[in-house]
Amino acid sequence: LKEAEDNLNTHAKELGRLKTEYDHNLNKLTESYYPKMRPLKIQVYHSLQVRRMLEKEISWLELLIQKRNEIGENFDETKDMSVARRDVVAEAEPMFNTAIEVMQGLKKEDLAVMRKYEH
User: Fold this and answer.
1) pLDDT tens digits for 19-52?
2) What predicted TM-score, i.e. pTM, was given to this entire model?
3) ∠ at Cα 53 (51, 55), nearest 5°?
């Protein structure tokens, strides 16, 4: 029984050390790593957004050139590209609607935190 109690105490001390090490590492991440990485993550997100925008613009210009080559001199961008323009808007519309629904579902407190502003 004494040996089992000693083993239990040893195991408890090891778990206590692990818990302390875990708390130390978590504090280190929270106070040091995350604040340093935040600007980088923002920059990466922004770069991805710019890349997507450029890809969309390139695909639009490719489509524009293709239509211009098909139609010839009588090409009118507003008239001839209206179907393609509607397709682009229709592709983005569900994402906008989802974003609006999510924003409308937020509580006032959450919106205040997002804006870093409270009334």
Assistant:
1) 999 999 888 888 888 888 888 888 999 999 999 9
2) 0.53
3) 70
The Cα 86–Cα 76 span in angstroms is 16
* Helices of type H across the chain: 2-28, 34-71, 77-80, 82-105, 108-115
Q: DSSP assignment, residue 117?
A: -
Q: Which amino acid is at 68?
A: R
- Could you tell me the two tokens for 1? 């029984």
* 102 exposure class (CB count in 10 Å sphere: 0-12, 13-18, 19+): exposed
User: Residues 103, 95: contact at Cβ < 8 Å?
Assistant: no
